[in-house]
Amino acid sequence: MSPEIQTKKLELIQWVAGIQDESLIDELQKFMQGDNRDWWDDLSDDQKASIEAGQEDIEAGRVMPHEEVKKVYEKWLTK
């Protein structure tokens, strides 16, 4: 095994060891046990509809570049 992979594995071990969020640990356990469900299946109908509406907006060109959004909301983004 390459030294790069060993380093990545050790970094992951250290990261997991420091996790305090029980829900994240539960999700990692599910992943480890092969629970590879699509996250889409866990969304509510309202959440799915909102995402689909956003995709339709993108496809129809109803979008605003990030730089323009930052200008519009600048007063709330600056401290």
Properties at a glance:
single chain; 79 residues; mainly alpha; 5 helices; 66% helix; 0% strand; extended
Summarize the structure.
The protein is mainly α and 79 residues long. The protein has helices at residues 3-17, 22-32, 45-59, 66-72, 74-77.
How would you explain this protein's 3D organization?
- The model has no long low-confidence stretch (mean pLDDT 91).
- The longest helix has 15 residues, at 3-17.
- With 79 residues, the chain is mostly helical.
- The N and C termini lie far apart (48 Å).
- 66% of the residues lie in helices and 0% in strands.
- The protein folds into two domains: 1-36; 38-79, no CATH class.
Per DSSP, the total helix count is 5
Beta strand count = 0
**So what's the overall shape?**
extended
Alpha-carbon Rg, integer: 20 Å
Note the run of SSEs as H and E.
HHHHH
Any chance you could write out the topology, listing elements then pairs?
Layout lengths: L2 H15 L4 H11 L12 H15 L6 H7 L1 H4 L2
